[in-house]
């Protein structure tokens, strides 16, 4: 991890931008760790605060927009052709789209803070043919909150950033797992309730 961060820091703003674009689009890049590290670099005077924040914002917006575009362009056709192999039928896709229409918009905003969720929500938004204006209205403010929070964390933690953030990251992973279990349990309960009433 240290080698990756050091390597990215050599590319400065370009490295930060590229890593966030491809990381948010789905590649296994530790986005939160990267932001905290660059916040630390700002605190040491090695990066300009405003340029770092702007680069991170444009990179995260670019990454989430790329995921949306992939979902919009190839997502539905891919599911229609290959979804049956993973039991993802057109009917299940419609159910996902209906669920997304009800509450999925807000997941675009808070999903940044849930590892593994942000690019998934953008893909579903694209597959649901959500208008880009509506997508941007919910997704981009989430990007602002996300990058500001983690850059600030690295800035204020200073030399202690790695120790504190590693502990925080473990808690975030646990919280994400718990939230996913709760969401599945609620969905299953509602499904059983609907079947009984029907």
Description:
This protein has 198 residues and is an all-alpha fold. It has one domain (2-161). Helix content is 82%, strand content 0%. The protein is built from eight helices and no strands. The chain has helices at 2-10, 12-24, 31-43, 49-82, 90-110, 118-127, 132-157, 161-197. Helix 2 (12-24) runs antiparallel to helix 3 (31-43), helix 4 crosses helix 6 and helix 4 (49-82) packs across helix 7 (132-157). The longest helix is centred in the last third of the chain and has 37 residues, at 161-197. The radius of gyration is 19 Å and the shape is globular.
Unreliable spans are none
Biggest beta-sheet profile: none
The oligomeric state is single chain
Q: Give the N-terminus to C-terminus distance in angstroms.
A: 53 Å
Number of strands: 0
Helix coverage percent of residues? over 70%
Task: Please tell me the total number of domains.
Answer: 1
Average pLDDT number? 79
Strand fraction equals under 5%
Radius of gyration: 19 Å
| Envelope shape | globular
- Provide the structure class: mainly alpha
**Helical stretch count?**
8
Order of helices and strands: HHHHHHHH
Topology (elements, then pairings):
Layout: H1 2-10, H2 12-24, H3 31-43, H4 49-82, H5 90-110, H6 118-127, H7 132-157, H8 161-197
Main attributes of the structure:
198 residues, mainly alpha, globular
Give me a quick take on this structure.
The chain is mostly helical and 198 residues long. It contains 8 helices and no strands. The chain has one domain (2-161).
